[in-house]
Amino acid sequence: MRKLLLASTAIAFGLSAAAPAFAEFNDRNIRVSNGINEDHPVGNGIKAMQACLDDKSGGKLKLTAFWGGALGGDLQATQALRSGVQEAVVTSSSPLVGIIPALGVFDLPFLFANAAEAYEVLDGEFGDMMNEKLAEAGLVNLAYWENGFRNLSNSVRPVTKWEDFQGMKVRVMQNNIFLDTFQNLGANATPMAFGEVFSALETNAIDAQENPYVTIDTSKFYEVQKYVTETNHAYTPFLFLFSKPIFDSYTAEEQAALRECAVVGRDEERKVIQDLNMKSLEKIKEAGLEVNTLSEEEQARIREKSMVVYEKHKAAIGADVVDNIVAKLEEIRK
Length: 334
Ligand code: TF8
Prior knowledge:
Elements: H1 2-18, E1 28-34, H2 41-57, E2 61-66, H3 74-82, E3 88-92, H4 115-122, H5 125-136, E4 139-149, E5 151-154, E6 169-172, H6 176-184, E7 188-191, H7 197-202, E8 208-211, H8 213-218, E9 227-230, E10 235-243, H9 244-247, H10 252-286, E11 290-293, H11 296-306, H12 308-317, H13 319-333
Parallel strand pairs: 1-2, 1-3, 6-7, 9-11
Antiparallel strand pairs: 3-10, 4-10, 5-8, 5-9
The structure holds (2R,3S,4S,5S)-2,3,4,5-tetrahydroxyhexanoic acid.
Protein name: ABC transporter substrate-binding protein
Signal peptide: 1-23
Keywords: Signal
């Protein structure tokens, strides 16, 4: 017994002398701002990311998530990252187009046809190119997480053709491409921060909004809406952004762990969204909303009508960026 004890003590000392555990890691409290609520799949992604970070850093890198816009909206939180006063945010790309015009490429209507092609573009060279532009603006994108395909909800009438958008007061993200897409369909589009949407719908200041089913579910928009149409008009990614000034002050090991674990979190989040999407739709139906789809002809008609938005915004986004993604998508679809 005594021998055994001595032996194991020797091993313990030997180990700690050779390599003090996690010496390259410091205690870090990483605040992660979210506009959506904790029961959104981003919550699952952050849990998976934390488990990965615990492994890699021996519990030294800690994520503290804030939900429901508690640390401010997407844009406000992103500016806090740029000036180095907050560590991280999970945000849609769309409200950031005023800072990085090229991100507007993801707002072009009907750009991606399905999630698989979005993943290929975002997780590949094109996504890396956008990440370089983000870095120039003081933002490190650790990974592209999923927001998802956006669908329209409203409180006035079923929407099954583009004429139904006529005069409808639709909240859009603070972004000119979304504004034009909905004006072009005849809607009365109103840019608004996400945090104001629920009460604007509740008080009928606006009639409609557009977001993926999981957001209509977890942000409880179904409580204040009567109709939903599966429009799939855009796939806007989430970015897991880190403050570049803060990131640059971290050790190489800490940086690598954050990048690797953000990808682990991304995969979990995407998986949970795929599962939850249809469950959220069921919940929306059970809450009494009328759910419509667009006929194939109508889908083609709306898509056709929306193509003017590409030409109109191409120069502002960057002609090279638009041509690049269009060519990439053609290649994927071959
Ligand atoms: C929107 C976005 C938002 C997200 C979230 C608040 O409609 O889709 O749901 O950016 O962070 O503003």
